[in-house]
Amino acid sequence: MHGIFYDPIHDEIVVPVALGGAVLTLPGDAAGDAPPKRTLQGPKTGMVQPDTVYVDLVHDELIVESGDESVLVFPRGAQGDVAPTRRIGGPNSQVSDIYGLAADSKRDCLVVANRVRSGVRASDDAILVFNRTDNGDPKPRNKIAGPHTGIIKIRQVDVDEERGLIFATIKNNFENYNWSDPRPSPWDPDRTGFIGVWSIDDDGDVPPRAVIKGPATGLVWPAGVAFNPKHHEIYAIDSVSNALFMFKMPEFFVKQPGSASIAR
Amino acid sequence: MRRVSCVVLALVILGLSNHGTPPDADGALCPLPDGKTRIRSPLDETTLYALERANGCLDDQDAAAPSGSWPPGWKTANIAGGDVPPVRVVSDPYPTLHSVVVDAARNRVFFSDPNRHALWSYDRLAASKDRHEVEAITGIRGPSTGMMFIAAVTLDRAKQEIYTVDNDIGDRLMVFPYDADGNVKPKRVLDVPHQAWGISIGEARNEFAVTVEAPREIVIYRKGAEGHEAPLRTIRGPKTRLGDPHGIFYDDANNELVVTNHGNQGGRAPAPGDAPARQRGSRVAEPQPIEGGKFDEPSITVYAADAKGDAAPLRQIQGDRTGLNWPMAIDVDRGRNEIAVANDGDSSVRVFRRGDTGNVAPVRVIKGPRTLINGPMGVAYDLENNEIWVANYGDHTALVFPIAANGNVAPKRILRNAPAGSPTVGFGNPGAVAYDSKRDEILVPN
Q1: How confident is residue A232, by pLDDT bands cut at 50, 70 and 90?
Q2: Which residue in chain B has the smallest CA separation from A187?
Q3: Do the Cβ atoms of A19 and B262 come within 8 Å?
Q4: pLDDT classification of B170: cutoffs 50, 70, 90
Q5: Strand ranges, E, within chain A
Q6: Rounded distance, CA B169 to CA B191, Å?
Q7: N or C: which terminus of chain A has fewer CB atoms within 10 Å of its end residue's CB?
Q8: Residues 141 to 200 of B: which have CB under 8 A from any A CB?
Q9: Residues in chain B within 8 Å Cβ distance of A64
Q10: CA distances to B92, B96, B194, B310, B432 from B152, in Å
């Protein structure tokens, strides 16, 4: 499983099961061999290999990556073999391999962590932002991508609706193994991953507003990110170090004019 | 119920240790410098770092190097944050024991370790005394090895080569010589499909077989294949009844391939035939129809060794009487005509007759608190010494039983690679995280 969402209103855990083409909803206190409350699965769902999910708690919708180059939206309580109420996909949308999803109900939009397989380090991986009710093959309203973004192999994203910020995990690396490389991927210290933060209104080839990146962070291939507004912490799970890193929610995520740069 | 366990067991739930009493399952924790944390680690920080470094998971010698290569424009941009240390880290500094294989002639046993991306070998007769760990003979680990989230391990005993394969990240098969040790490059590297898991060598046909989860396929290569070499053939398609295959045994004596299946069926029909599968979505050049995902019952399927394409299994063991639940590695005792399966879902080893088919009960089950079996991934026969090895992923032990062990019996030897009681965190290529605000817990799916 490469996705998870905790729903605090209904006290539920929602997980995609990529290998079974399903989304399961479990009680918040599930442990051991607990049965799911709901299973969404079947040909009408359009789910092939769902890798990531998000729940829009304001609009009561379940947002699912299909594994088939599209975003699917269902009623939150959908179960069984039901068709999505909306679908975003197609050449205008630029939606390809999705590794993260989030929603900002205040700004009425969906955030898609999108990967495009290029086979080389040059990347068109992007954060795509759509209007929440988009359906069909719309163009994204914002696209954050390009060399200045540093977005290479993006994974899970989360949104801070209060401040309009997107938190994204960026692996910044490839699995390619080069015999001549003294430090084959992913341990090349020049290409370790990071957490990047952008404004949800950012557009184009723009650097992040804030990052957690560098040897002191311990991050190699961060694959997941969540934040804890209560205790002002950010959590990053790393798929290569097999470790969970907890950072203090830094005030530096609120951009301050003249604040210290990353080069410090 | 089986399908539920597939999900729930894969979730690691961590209580926030600085906001309450740490749960027992917190794992070995690496508290970082603020000194205010109330995390209780069985080891001090210095020891933890030393262990991580020794195990190849800390590679901080060039700590000052990276900043020069950051993306264009970042140095002059007004970017907050930077190289900030975490306030807490949860990780397991010890290797995990995933898959196991024995070379009885050389008295060596080999394990794969996806936690630290390593291969470890031990003396076959090594046993832990009291609560202490056993020292490995060799440990292949570090950046040069190229090993990522590795799964199965197997041996070419004649050539004294160790094979392992990347599962969800890496997409490579690596071959090392028996005597490899430390941070060394593999002898050969072969690109394999994404989500490979099992490997087994067929000496008679001079080839080896690899299972691949999402496309539900078995890919067979020439022994000695390397680089981008294409497989000799692929077994894939709806008639195969493959469902998220994991363990595989190439039974030369009976000219068969024996495979464990978790039963998961992705939403797109498996493409019949030999065409290479796409990495995500199990698609080939012409996408197969979306027929909806399914959770089929776990199974053991058996194929002719020369099967190709959409070939039906010769036999299939499946159904509620089998007790199969997340069946992982598999081995075949050609003398007794028995199949042993590491049954991760209920922490058991299940033994079936080799010729069984249908909904059959195992002839023996090793299970219960005395066995100390805990989330087994690996199982291997040592036919020369009439023993069966079990690698526990749920803790830091491997267990050795008499070959005909049955029921709730104690192992004859225990091999530990960490002090007794050292917890395992359970992370395996984790890909997401969530915060449970109601319970003040962090949720991590594997």
Answers
A1: confident
A2: B143
A3: yes
A4: confident
A5: 5-7, 12-17, 22-27, 38-41, 53-56, 61-65, 71-75, 86-88, 97-104, 109-115, 126-131, 142-145, 154-160, 165-170, 194-199, 210-212, 222-228, 233-238, 243-248
A6: 12
A7: C
A8: 143-144, 146, 148-149, 166, 169-172, 185, 189
A9: none
A10: 20, 13, 14, 25, 24
CA distances from B374 to B14, B367, B389, B395 (A): 20, 9, 13, 7
Nearest to B301 by CA among B349, B263, B337, B264: B263
Mutation target for B interface from A10, A19, A153: give the one with most B CBs within 10 A.
A19
User: Quick check: A212 and B430 CB within 8 A?
Assistant: no
CB atoms B84 and A150 under 8 Å? no
* CA B26 – CA B42 distance, rounded (Å): 11
Q: Is the pLDDT of residue A195 over 50?
A: yes
Helical (H) or strand (E) element with B352: strand B348-353
Residues 6+ apart with CB under 8 A from A241: A218, A219, A220, A221, B57, B91
Q: Taking the alpha carbons of B19, B23, B26, B27 in that order, is the dihedral positive or negative? A: positive
Q: CB under 8 Å to B177, separation ≥6 — which residues? A: B160, B161, B162, B187
Chains A and B form CB pairs within 8 A to the count of 351
Q: Where are the beta strands (DSSP E) in B193-335?
A: 196-202, 207-212, 217-222, 233-236, 245-251, 256-261, 264-265, 294-295, 299-304, 315-318, 327-333
Complex ipTM value: 0.93
**Mean pLDDT across the stretch B295-303?**
98
B187-216 pLDDT, tens digit per residue, is 999 999 989 999 999 999 999 999 999 999
DSSP state of B24: G
Predicted pLDDT of residue A253 = 55
pLDDT of residue A136: 98
Distance in Å, alpha carbon of B214 to nearest chain A alpha carbon:
6
The answer to whether A210 touches B80, Cβ cutoff 8 Å, is yes
**Strand positions, DSSP E, A161-232:** 165-170, 194-199, 210-212, 222-228
d(CA B229, CA B14): 43
Q: What share of chain B is helix, strand, coil (3-state, %, to 5)?
A: 10, 40, 55
Element (H, E) at B53: helix B45-54
φ, ψ (nearest 5 deg) of residue B146: 75, 0
Q: Check: CATH 2.130.10.10 for B100-416?
A: yes
Over range B404-410, report the average pLDDT.
Answer: 98
CB contact under 8 A, A217 and B74: no
Chain A residues with CB under 8 Å of B70 CB are 150, 213, 262
Predicted TM-score of the model (pTM): 0.89
Question: Smallest Cα–Cα separation from A220: which of B439, B169, B404, B366?
Answer: B169
| pLDDT over threshold 90, residue A21 | yes
Domain definitions of chain B by residue range: 100-416
For residue B97, the cross-strand partners are none
Confidence category of residue A173, pLDDT binned at 50, 70, 90: confident
The beta-carbon neighbor of A67 closest among B172, B280, B433 is: B280
The string of pLDDT tens digits covering residues A105-157 is 999 999 999 998 765 555 789 999 999 999 999 999 999 999 999 999 999 99
Nearest to A241 among B91, B166, B295 (CB): B91
Query: B149 contacts in A (CB within 8 Å)?
Result: 239
On whether the CB atoms of residues A251 and B180 are closer than 8 A, the answer is: no
Distance of alpha carbon A143 from alpha carbon B63, whole angstroms? 33
Phi, psi of B163 (to 5 degrees): -110, 140
Give per-residue burial for B211-224: e unless 16+ CB within 10 Å, then b: bbbbbbbbbbbebe
